[in-house]
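Deliverable D2.4 — example input (structure tokens):
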């Protein structure tokens, strides 16, 4: 029998109940946001739920299940997490086109007002066709998205732009474009530095192939616009570099870790400071992440580590190379947890990870106690194994 066709082991150590009754997500999602954390500002970058019955091709526009997508955001807010909307976790540039992202931002921001949840939203240039834009077009695309986010009531997150990376001749182009956007923003924004492990098209961002030179450009842009940058999201998967960067930030500028490999140590910090968080891995880890930060709020750093450190093995598995496909594992775990009724993704990305990878994610998540209904998770894992691996 091949490994792919074996019946998956039960994540909780009990026998596999493949005959367990199927369930669908209910409408009893929490309706309010929990009290915010006091020691850290924490966002989870939220995934979107595709409509499995939409007649669309992998390269066609995404069609979302709006009820399930918004219900998941209420789940995050109910634990006290902020929602980072329309980011790469939501498949920006990998299935989610700008018109759908714009509608997502509008709907989620309205939902945030209803429940009292915090929301920040991605601002990019993905409405532009690849390789056909100059700096004026890139700047105008950013402006369009910035205006929409501000009008919707979300905090802007200026995301890294593939189109800017393709056309910028050096650091000066980044300083020009970002400087213009920061001057016209109506409130402090979050700057997002996304490394090429998440998107290969972002190689050499900030106008330099070397990270040291890129860091200098990044810091100079921040320094030249005091009061305009709330914080920076750093997604380079390099803890030492993040610590060095945050120690050089102005006192009023937060460092939001985007490091899904080293987040416990970065959030806990040291005697010279700490990172806040804006993480894709906090989408599946929301209950544990919230519990851990509450412990940190109470000054119990040891208990914080006891809760959050064991989650790193799962995070590193989900974000293993090619890292940009971590989204598949995130949606897979949402399905196993009962947050959505299917494992279909925009752009067909449910096929981006192997069955072996998904089975390991199931085992690790089960070991952490992440599944509200372990029987449902086992049942769904068995069905997926039968479809993708064949009958034994």
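Example output (designed residues):
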């Amino acid at each position: 029998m091949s490994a792919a066709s074996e019946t998956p082991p039960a994540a909780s150590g009990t026998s596999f109940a493949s005959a367990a009754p199927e369930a669908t997500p209910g409408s009893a999602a929490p309706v309010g946001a929990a009290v915010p954390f006091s020691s850290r500002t924490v966002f989870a970058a939220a995934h979107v739920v595709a409509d499995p019955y939409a007649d669309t091709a992998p390269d066609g526009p995404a069609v979302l299940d709006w009820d399930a997508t918004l219900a998941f955001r209420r789940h995050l807010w109910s634990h006290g997490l902020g929602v980072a909307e329309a980011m790469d976790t939501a498949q920006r540039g990998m299935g989610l086109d700008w018109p759908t992202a714009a509608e997502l931002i509008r709907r989620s921001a309205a939902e945030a007002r209803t429940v009292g949840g915090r929301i920040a939203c991605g601002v990019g240039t993905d409405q532009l066709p690849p390789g056909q834009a100059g700096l004026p077009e890139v700047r105008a695309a950013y402006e369009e998205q910035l205006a929409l986010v501000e009008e919707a009531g979300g905090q802007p997150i200026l995301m890294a732009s593939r189109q800017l990376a393709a056309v910028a001749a050096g650091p000066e182009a980044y300083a020009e474009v970002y400087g213009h956007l920061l001057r016209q923003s109506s409130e402090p924004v979050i700057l997002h530095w996304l490394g090429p492990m998440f998107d290969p098209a972002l190689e050499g961002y900030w106008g330099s192939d070397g990270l040291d030179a890129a860091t200098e450009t990044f810091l100079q842009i921040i320094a030249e616009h005091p009061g305009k940058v709330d914080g920076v999201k750093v997604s380079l998967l390099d803890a030492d570099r993040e610590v060095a960067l945050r120690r050089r930030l102005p006192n009023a500028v937060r460092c939001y870790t985007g490091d899904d490999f080293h987040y416990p140590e970065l959030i806990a910090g040291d005697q010279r400071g700490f990172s806040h968080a804006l993480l894709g891995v906090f989408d599946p880890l929301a209950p544990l992440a919230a519990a851990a930060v509450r412990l940190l709020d109470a000054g119990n750093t040891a208990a914080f580590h006891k809760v959050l450190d064991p989650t790193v093995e799962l995070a590193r598995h989900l974000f293993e190379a090619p890292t940009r496909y971590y989204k598949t594992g995130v949606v897979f775990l949402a399905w196993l947890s009962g947050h959505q009724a299917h494992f279909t993704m925009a752009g067909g990305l449910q096929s981006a990870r192997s069955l072996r990878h998904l089975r390991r994610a199931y085992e690790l998540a089960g070991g952490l106690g992440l599944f509200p209904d372990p029987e449902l998770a086992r049942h769904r894992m068995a069905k997926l194994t039968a479809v993708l691996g064949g009958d034994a």
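The chain is about 40% helix and 10% strand.
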